[in-house]
Specification:
Layout (H helix, E strand, L loop, with lengths): L1 E5 L7 E7 L6 E10 L2 H7 L9 E2 L4 E8 L11 E4 L9 H4 L15 E5 L4 E3 L10 E5 L3 E4 L5 H7 L2 H13 L6 E5 L3 H13 L3 E5 L3 H10 L3 E3 L6 H8 L5 E6 L4 H10 E9 L13 H5 L4 E4 L7 H13 L11 E3 L4 H9 L6 E4 L2
Parallel strand pairs: 11-12, 11-14, 12-13, 14-15, 15-16, 17-18
Antiparallel strand pairs: 1-2, 1-4, 2-7, 3-5, 3-9, 3-18, 5-6, 6-10, 7-8
Bound molecules: zinc ion (2 copies).
């Protein structure tokens, strides 16, 4: 099978033939039909997230089960599945305590399931490795879904949509009538905006320097936009909210300076949610006065605090009922061979999401 192999930091991915291993017990072989290009893949390629090369990236994908190993109980051949970039083992403390997005198996699944032509083992990002024609993964990294939605939309549920909508609905639990600010309007940011709209926010301020992203935000539920190039974002938000600040502010870039900025946009008693993933060796520094004496809350968010076995079907239901728009989040579909062009388009701010579709 062919895969886009991560061979060197800051270099392009190499689309080449790789040799999959014989699948083991509880392994599932999935024919990947669609895979979104997410900013976290780029974060691995540039060293922001620690996963040294070589390896197969891609963690936002959907496809069809082609083969199941001994002991697989969650799915059968022919089922449609979405990859979950955090597994759900079902037996660890977090899985049993309704926080499967913190499953203790998270860092145990990134094992190789294929070799390069020269025999070098290729670990798979988050146990998936969706930038390929096929992936072999543990059944705990997959969620079976029943729907007629297209695979390119299902792929987005694997990361960006669940993270963003979940940040609004699960992590922050946005209340109806509230004022929401979203800093960074890529795929995840657009999903936060939609989550806030679904939650009944009265105002949603979308912050991004790229016009395409502000325009898409307005289509998907934002009520107004802020261009950071027009001046300090916190000042603009404070002015737009009668001097008080917003009830919920989401940072969806992964930049510690912007997390501070998001905190400064938040009203006393309000909540700042850090959704973007900063470099793992950085520190966030915030002023102590508003933290304590203004009761501002700063909370982290991984995978939208989702319980994927519950939330993937829920999100599909929201799409099917027209409340969640995934088609406007997909700017273009491309083929695996054009993956590096897909990353270029992301870096240049030309797309909300590119999705690789295998024919
Ligand atoms: Zn992602
Ligand atoms: Zn677990």
């Amino acid at each position: 099978m062919r895969a886009a192999v991560f061979t060197e930091l800051d270099g392009p991915l190499s689309v080449e033939e790789v040799k999959p291993y014989e699948p083991g017990p509880r392994d599932v072989v999935v024919r990947i039909i669609a895979s979104g290009i997410c900013h976290s893949d780029l974060s691995v390629m540039n060293g922001t997230l620690p996963m040294p090369p070589p390896g197969i990236l891609g963690h936002e994908g959907a496809g069809v089960v082609e083969w199941v190993g001994e002991g697989v109980t969650r799915m059968s051949v022919g089922d449609r599945v979405i990859g979950s970039f955090i597994p759900v083992c079902g037996t660890c403390w977090y899985c049993k305590n309704n926080q499967s997005n913190l499953c203790e198996q998270t860092f145990m699944v990134s094992v190789p399931h294929a070799d390069r032509a020269d025999g070098t083992p290729l670990p798979a990002m988050t146990g998936l490795g969706t930038f390929a024609e096929q992936m072999t993964c543990h059944e705990m990294s997959l969620v079976k879904v029943e729907t007629d939605l297209p695979d390119e939309q299902l792929a987005l549920i694997g990361c960006g949509v669940t993270t963003g909508v979940g940040a609004a609905l699960n992590t922050a639990q946005v209340e109806p009538g509230s004022i929401v600010v979203v800093i960074g309007c890529g795929g995840v940011g657009q999903a936060v905006i939609q989550g806030a709209r679904i939650a009944g926010a009265s105002r949603i301020l979308a912050v991004d320097p790229v016009a395409l992203k502000r325009d898409t935000a307005m289509k998907l539920g934002a009520t107004e936009t802020i261009n950071p190039d027009d001046g300090d974002v916190a000042t603009q938000v404070i002015m737009a909210t009668g001097g008080r600040g917003a009830d919920y502010v989401f940072e969806v870039i992964g930049n510690v300076d912007l997390i501070l900025q998001a905190f400064m946009c938040t009203r006393p008693g309000g909540t700042t949610v850090a959704v973007g993933v900063p470099r793992t060796d950085t520190m966030v520094s915030i002023p102590s006065f508003p933290l304590v004496l203004q009761e501002k809350k700063l909370i982290g968010c991984v995978y939208g605090s989702a319980k994927v076995l519950r939330d993937f079907p829920r999100l599909i239901g929201l799409v099917e009922s027209g409340k969640l728009d995934l088609s406007d989040m997909i700017t273009k579909t491309i083929v695996l061979d054009d993956i590096n062009e897909g990353f270029r388009a992301m870096k240049d701010g030309e797309v909300i999401r590119s999705v690789i579709v295998n024919s």
